[in-house]
Amino acid sequence: MKIEPLAIPDVKLLTPRVFGDDRGFFLETYNSRVFAEAGLPTEWRQDNHSRSARGVLRGLHYQLTDPQGKLVRVTRGRVFDVAVDIRRASPSFGQWVGAELSDENQAMLFIPPGFAHGFLVLSEVADFCYKCTTLWHQQSDRSLRWSDPAIGIDWPLDGLTPQLAGKDAAAPLLADAEVFA
Ligand SMILES: Cc1cn([C@H]2C[C@H](O)[C@@H](COP(=O)(O)OP(=O)(O)O[C@H]3O[C@@H](C)C(=O)[C@@H](O)[C@H]3O)O2)c(=O)[nH]c1=O
């Protein structure tokens, strides 16, 4: 597994080794020894799977209590995945990084606690699977505005109108949001 820091180095791009043969392929999506050696979490409390149609934009999400680290990947389709640093004390506070994740490149992102996370679906359908280091905490679940100009995410919309949940369409801007110290 190749593990590389992105421009915000706490966010890692993971590229598993894919073993293809005449039956199909095999890859490791998580290996506790490899993760421990790379300084990544080895304790995960929840696994999630969502399915979305083209143009769906989920995010930007985080939770204030027991913030979640996330290991995210796409098992069907293609998305543009984004992490925004919302740790006020961080030198990269308010900055974002993004990567395309697909069932072609089999790439994964590790997003540490303290980041808001979201993705835009670029394929007809996308199955999005992820592990979380802590349990979902509904009461402290928060959204941040996907289009906040102060963050300036360069979503590859290519004419798509994003399809948002009501809570995400009405989400506050970073300047008005509760974030991490
Ligand atoms: C996140 C979550 C939601 N739910 C329920 C609540 C709700 O009825 C339904 C859909 O929830 P949401 O609209 O929050 O789902 P979704 O918009 O897919 O939320 C997810 O978005 C991505 C970007 C993330 O980063 C995730 O952490 C998570 O926030 O599922 C759970 O039961 N457990 C969970 O862990």
UniProtKB/TrEMBL annotation:
Enzyme class: isomerase
GO cellular component, one term: cytosol
Pathway given in the UniProt record: Carbohydrate biosynthesis; dTDP-L-rhamnose biosynthesis
EC number: 5.1.3.13
GO molecular function: dTDP-4-dehydrorhamnose 3,5-epimerase activity
Annotated function: Catalyzes the epimerization of the C3' and C5'positions of dTDP-6-deoxy-D-xylo-4-hexulose, forming dTDP-6-deoxy-L-lyxo-4-hexulose.
Quaternary state and interactors: Homodimer.
Protein's name according to its UniProt entry: dTDP-4-dehydrorhamnose 3,5-epimerase
Lineage: Bacteria, Pseudomonadati, Pseudomonadota, Alphaproteobacteria, Sphingomonadales
